[in-house]
UniProtKB/TrEMBL annotation:
InterPro entries: Bact_response_regulator, CheY-like_superfamily, Rev_trsase/Diguanyl_cyclase, Sig_transdc_resp-reg_receiver. It comes from the Bacteria. This is Diguanylate cyclase, GGDEF domain. Pfam families: Response_reg. The keyword Phosphoprotein applies. It comes from Sulfitobacter delicatus. The modification 4-aspartylphosphate is found at residue 54. PROSITE patterns: RESPONSE_REGULATORY.
């Protein structure tokens, strides 16, 4: 795995490659400024598999470098690990919104560095061998009218939203908030109630369009809130939002629904593409690692699915039988 390390501290530039070599990662390029790193990344002579960025550096900082790196097609999904002294929530939020995959505060030991690099290796290996669109679903989806290049359960890439990140990054973000002792966030999930029906009936482009427009409605409904969100697949979004910065739960659901209804979405043949959403009750995270973060997200998803089921029960017609005397 080819690694690019960027840090203005000579000790880090010496120490991290030594620790990584002991772990079996000896193909590391180390540079002392974001400008040097940007030159290496932008000229494309070498494609790196994992990037380690410090944040506070003279000139361009690591967050800006992270954002610029994500504009390069070959680095849109590359693991970017922020390696920094900065433990404040503002830095954490800025880094993940710029496209960071993970966040580690200094000082870092061999064990923790190894854990982060192994996670990055797993991501790189998975993306080399199996595209995200071909991951087998947990249960067979309904037979689709179109031959989709991805499954309904697949996490598809959605671009154009600064506060929308990968599901892996969202889990790492939650875990880092906990490790830094930063509380006050809550997790909610939003389901596209007709998601599988749209996937079954529509073309791949029509399903992407429905997911994109739902993401747009979520981001607009929460635009005054401090949040970070991810599309997890299966027509489900997970949102981490700062407590006290978001509207009441039912107001969020109504606003997302209103924005979607205003769009008058249509299939390519002009027929209505109707989407309703369900927002589950919030889950307060209690975690200290990425696996615990994913379990928190799973609880939020289960609550949104329960909300959808309850709405379906209420709207289901009731057959009344009148028995004569």
């Amino acid at each position: 795995m080819k690694i690019l390390l960027v840090d203005d501290d000579p000790l880090i530039l010496e120490l991290v490659p030594l620790m990584a070599a002991k772990l079996g990662y000896d193909n590391i390029t180390a540079v002392s400024s974001a400008e040097q790193a940007w030159h290496l990344l932008n000229n494309g002579n070498v494609i790196y598999d994992c990037l380690l960025f410090d944040i506070v550096m003279p000139g361009m900082d690591g967050v800006e470098l992270c954002g610029l790196t994500r504009t390069i097609a070959s680095y849109r999904k590359t693991p970017i690990i922020m390696l920094t002294l900065m433990a404040g929530q503002d830095y954490i939020d800025r880094a993940f919104k710029a496209g960071a995959t993970d966040y580690v505060t200094k000082p870092i030991g061999v064990v923790e560095l190894g854990a982060r690099l192994r996670m990055a290796t797993e991501v790189v290996t998975a993306r080399q061998n199996v595209s995200a669109e071909n991951i087998a679903p947990s249960k067979p989806p309904l037979k689709a009218t179109y031959a989709h290049p991805f499954n309904f359960t697949s996490e598809i890439e959605i671009t154009g939203f600064k506060k929308l990140v990968s599901y892996e990054a969202l889990g790492n973000y939650l875990a880092q908030l906990s490790r830094a002792g930063l509380r006050g966030s809550q997790v909610i999930a939003v389901t596209m109630d007709q998601g599988e029906g749209v996937y079954t009936r529509g073309s791949p482009d029509e399903f992407d369009y429905a997911v994109y427009e739902t993401a747009d409605a979520i981001c607009e409904a929460l635009e005054t809130s401090d949040f970070l969100a991810s599309y997890t697949g299966s027509g489900i979004f997970v949102v981490v939002v700062a407590q006290g910065s978001s509207p009441p739960l039912r107001d969020i659901e109504r606003e997302i629904q209103y924005l979607l209804d205003e769009k008058d979405l249509e299939y390519d043949d002009g027929s209505p593409l109707d989407i309703t959403v369900s927002v589950g009750s919030p889950v307060i995270p209690s975690l200290n690692n990425a696996q615990s973060a994913i379990r928190t997200c799973d609880r939020a998803i289960a609550r949104a699915q329960h909300r959808r089921e309850r709405k379906n029960e209420v709207s289901r017609p009731v057959n009344i039988r009148i028995v004569g005397r």
